[in-house]
Amino acid sequence: MKIQNSKTSFLIPAITLAVILSGCFATYQDSGNKSVFTSLNNCQSFTDQTDPNSTPYKLCPGTAGYQLILRKVAAGRKSIEILSDSQQSFPLNYQAVVTRQMFHLGEQAEWRIAHSSTGTQPVALIAEIHAHENPDEPDQVTTIYLAVAKVSATESCVTDVIEQQGVSRAQLQQLADKAQQRACIGTPPH
Prior knowledge:
Elements lengths: L2 E3 L8 H13 L7 E6 L4 E4 L8 E5 L6 E6 L5 E6 L5 E3 L2 H4 L4 E15 L2 E14 L10 E8 L6 E7 L5 H9 L13
Antiparallel strand pairs: 1-11, 2-8, 3-4, 4-5, 5-6, 6-7, 8-9, 9-10, 10-11
């Protein structure tokens, strides 16, 4: 398992990450956040009329007034944009912050939802990115990355990228629950 965040511009080996995670999560208390899963396959197709190329995109269900846009990016890959409840769009740019290689998205997104007296609010989004990083076997998935993005009405961006292998769902959710306090990733990992 490897992780990348804004404070480390490289992927951390699994043994180092285990030490980091044990320290980080040893004091973790249940945030009370819950998960809501939404499909990345059950989406409506549209054409961007503001684009001179009439680029198609898909609008996918979300939660608490938020939705997801799947849009083609460089070399036919698709990335996610978070569409806030006020209709502001935040591109997550997986092609720039997760992998420069070919990839496809997993079948669903996991939203971390906070409940308060004013209602429910998404605080993070977790998505699977299936990378095809072996040029000799372009159809083979070599690594599955989990991209954690913080979500808010004013800023949404990827804060952490973790290899799926070796991380538990609980650890991933704990990291997502802390995404609001983390900085955005600004540079691609490799």
